[in-house]
Write a structure and sequence with these properties.
Blueprint (H helix, E strand, L loop, with lengths): L9 E6 L8 E5 L4 E9 L3 E5 L4 E6 L3 E6 L1 H4 L11 E5 L4 E6 L8 E6 L3 E6 L3 E5 L18 E5 L4 E8 L4 E5 L2 E5 L4 E5 L10 E5 L4 E9 L4 E6 L4 E5 L3 E5 L5 E3 L7 E4 L10 E2 L14 E3 L3 E6 L4 E9 L9 E8 L2 E9 L4 E7 L4 E8 L9 E10 L5
Antiparallel strand pairs: 1-5, 2-3, 2-6, 3-4, 4-5, 6-21, 7-8, 7-11, 8-9, 9-10, 11-16, 12-13, 12-16, 13-14, 14-15, 17-18, 17-21, 18-19, 19-20, 22-32, 23-26, 24-25, 25-32, 26-31, 27-30, 27-32, 28-29, 28-31
């Protein structure tokens, strides 16, 4: 089990006064996890309270990310929002809110966020927009990715083609001609823009927001001022900030890398492939949803250029505690870098292993009771890249 304090923290004060603060998990540049109580967060340093009650400081150059403390939240996803709509961009940014009534250019979607204010999203960066969460029929507003743009109407009909405008009216170029619709008739749309990797400084907020920010400054009062790319700023409390990535170009979610091969153990046919636990309502923090390996099997990935470490949590789910007993094995270019047994007495491990190589293999091997209930969940599985590789 890999768990360590942040690299060389500096004692910056006398014991802090006792009060309830949110707990977070700090991932250092070895992807090792430490539970902290943050006092302030900005783009230069994280100040936090340690177990003795003293305030410590660590430079953000030594921090890969800050994420929720799962013992409190019980989940890997943010809480979600009660806002009436949701805007999702191609680089993973998410803005709960609503369509803005302010005028906008034809190729820009104007959006209002309850905390961050106006967001201007160029259409070539929009992945999905939901103007409402449910149709009048009760069905959720959702469109699967497709090679062409698609719009979902309030009555449940779908239009496919090229979306020219998401203002009022909405304009769609279809195979049968151009269509103009009042904005009130459109429930949502998905655009066929390619996925982009997130770069730079990004925040995850408790309402489901994921925002790339230009700067993050502590306000000296237990909060922070965030400035977005569009230059608008907002004050946020530490309770609102549940996750921070200080350089998104250096982290890759293993769940977002397509595996090259999957096979069952011992030459048996593969009955159930690897599963990704994507949630329709709430995104996984760091865009790293859990990966389920539903039985003795192995999965192979091609590592991204510049990969240095793989970190995460391996867990035997509680439903498998009666008979589940297996080994989690990680190999890089056929060289074993991790072998840990998971069973009822030790159902969870944290790991951080070197992955400098080309091919990553993760395997579940049956243990004392054979393959019965040998199911492993990989949580927040992240690959760290060398500087300049992302």
């Amino acid at each position: 089990m890999c768990a360590a304090a942040p690299a060389q923290p500096v004692d910056v004060s006398a014991p802090a006064p006792a009060r309830q603060r949110p707990k977070r998990v700090l991932l250092d540049m070895e992807l090792r996890a430490s539970v902290i109580e943050p006092l302030s967060i900005d783009q230069r340093a994280v100040v936090y309270q340690d177990e003795s009650g003293r305030a410590r400081e660590v430079r953000t150059s030594q921090v890969a990310a800050i994420i929720p403390y799962l013992a409190e939240s019980g989940a890997t996803a943010v809480l979600g929002s009660e806002a009436e709509g949701l805007l999702i961009l191609a680089d993973g940014q998410r803005f709960p809110g609503r369509r803005s009534g302010a005028p906008a250019e034809q190729d820009v979607l104007a959006w209002e966020h309850p905390t961050l204010g106006s967001v201007a999203a160029p259409l070539d960066l929009v992945s999905e927009v939901r103007y409402m969460l449910f149709l009048p029929s009760g069905d959720p507003v959702f469109l699967e990715p497709a090679p062409r743009d698609r719009a979902l109407l309030v009555n449940g009909d779908r239009l496919e083609g090229f979306i020219e405008s998401l203002g009022d009216p909405v304009r769609i170029e279809t195979s049968s001609g151009d269509v103009e619709l009042p904005a009130a008739r459109v429930a949502g749309a998905r655009l066929a823009n390619p996925r982009q990797e997130q770069r730079g400084l990004a925040l995850w907020l408790e309402d489901g927001t994921v925002a790339r920010v230009r700067s993050l400054e502590t306000d000296g009062r237990g909060g922070a001022s965030a400035t977005l790319a569009d230059a608008q700023s907002a004050r946020l409390s530490l309770d609102q900030i549940i996750g921070v990535v200080f350089d998104g170009s250096r982290l890759r979610s293993l769940a977002r890398i397509a595996p090259q091969e999957q096979s069952a153990a011992e030459g048996r046919p593969l009955l159930d492939p690897m599963r990704i636990a994507d949630d329709f309502w709430a995104p996984a923090v760091l865009d790293a949803p859990s990966i389920e390996l539903p039985g003795p099997m192995q999965v192979m990935w091609t590592l991204p250029e510049g990969a240095t470490r793989l970190g995460g949590v391996g867990r035997l789910p509680r439903s498998s505690w009666v008979w589940g007993d297996c080994e989690l094995v990680i190999e890089v270019d056929e060289q074993e870098v991790l072998r840990e047994r998971l069973h009822r007495g030790r159902p969870t491990i944290e790991f951080s292993v070197p992955v400098r190589g080309r091919e990553l293999t993760i395997r579940v091997e049956p243990g004392a009771y054979g393959p019965i209930q040998d199911r492993v969940i990989l949580e927040r599985a992240l690959i760290l890249l060398a500087p300049g590789e992302g």
